[in-house]
Amino acid sequence: MQTITLNNGLTMPQLGFGVWQVPDAEARSVVAEALRAGYRSIDTAAIYGNEQGVGLALRDSGVPREDLFVTTKLWNTEHAHDDALRAFDASLARLGLDYVDLYLIHWPVPSRDRYVDAWRAMEKIAADGRAKAVGVSNFNAKHLERLFAETGLVPAVNQVELHPYFPQARLRALHAEHRIATEAWSPLGQGRGLLEDASLVAIGKKHGKTAAQVVLRWHLQLGNVVIPKSVTPERIRQNLDVFDFTLDAEDLSAIAELDRGGRIGPDPDTFDWMG
Ligand code: A2P
């Protein structure tokens, strides 16, 4: 599996498996399927409600812990420093693990204005070695700059909505400047119209690949970490089969033209759902 090196030296698989909206009861079999197919990085979150199922699959799989890369996330209600520490312990207990590879603040929730407190708790968790790396999710430039100004630790990762309809060029440039890895959620645009886009389908035909594989390859060539979600065994395997072709300059410029500021999910500056 192709990896990238985070700003603290940890290596992370560039392609992982996301489990948003996978119910806990299904997570065990879906993650088992993904591990059998060859995924080694699994992305969950406390709010997904499936850490137990994910943990069972990980522990049942027989894959050595050091070969796995496990990400989970701190929920919006737990930003106060001590709440964050307790929430982390609860996630570890549900996963049945003694460390995670990556722990992320799920959303900044600017209306509550506690994400700097939460970030200080993340620093402590990282210092204790119970998360090998810590980062954020859904932070925009303003939120990141506040962390830089008020704390000493740069996030290893910012996981944000990113796909060809919403490629986040400016945020990616800021990440590059600070050596923050860009991780894409909904990398396939949630499988909606994007995967029927005529130009992606045409590029796929040229390479003998599907539109989904073209989109994943685009992410990889941009340097993004990508975590497609699927509950369909054939797609779980298909989404891993993206290392045997390369998009050329013409393909990349056609994909660059698809940018339409097409955000699907909430705006992180106003999102304050507490679950
Ligand atoms: P399903 O889980 O039913 O297989 P994203 O990761 O961008 O959020 O996209 C996830 C959505 O895209 C899911 O609805 C998933 O459907 C669908 N999907 C995942 N992989 C593929 C694929 N290779 N081809 C078509 N749709 C896919």
Key attributes of the depicted protein:
alpha/beta; binds adenosine-2'-5'-diphosphate; 39% helix; TIM Barrel; AKR; NAD(P)_OxRdtase_dom_sf; two-stranded antiparallel sheet; eight-stranded parallel sheet; 275 residues
What percentage of amino acids are in beta strands?
Answer: 15-25%
Measured distance between first and last alpha carbons: 35 Å
How many β strands by DSSP? 10
The run of helices and strands is EEEHEHEHEHEHEHEHHEHH
Main sheet overview: 8 strands, parallel
Rounded mean pLDDT is 97
> Strand arrangement, largest sheet?
3-4-5-6-7-8-9-10
Residue windows where pLDDT falls under 50 for at least 5 positions: none
CATH superfamily: NADP-dependent oxidoreductase domain
Instruction: Classify the oligomer.
Output: single chain
Would you tell me the structural class of the helices and strands? alpha/beta
Whole-number count of domains? 1
Write the layout of secondary structure elements.
Blueprint lengths: L2 E3 L5 E3 L3 E2 L5 H14 L3 E3 L7 H10 L8 E6 L6 H15 L4 E6 L9 H13 L3 E7 L3 H10 L6 E5 L7 H10 L2 E5 L12 H10 L3 H12 L2 E2 L6 H6 L10 H8 L19
Parallel strand pairs: 3-4, 4-5, 5-6, 6-7, 7-8, 8-9, 9-10
Antiparallel strand pairs: 1-2
Bound molecules: adenosine-2'-5'-diphosphate.
The site of adenosine-2'-5'-diphosphate has 18 residues, from helix 9.
Pfam family, one: Aldo_ket_red
GO molecular function: oxidoreductase activity, acting on the CH-OH group of donors, NAD or NADP as acceptor
Organism: Streptacidiphilus pinicola
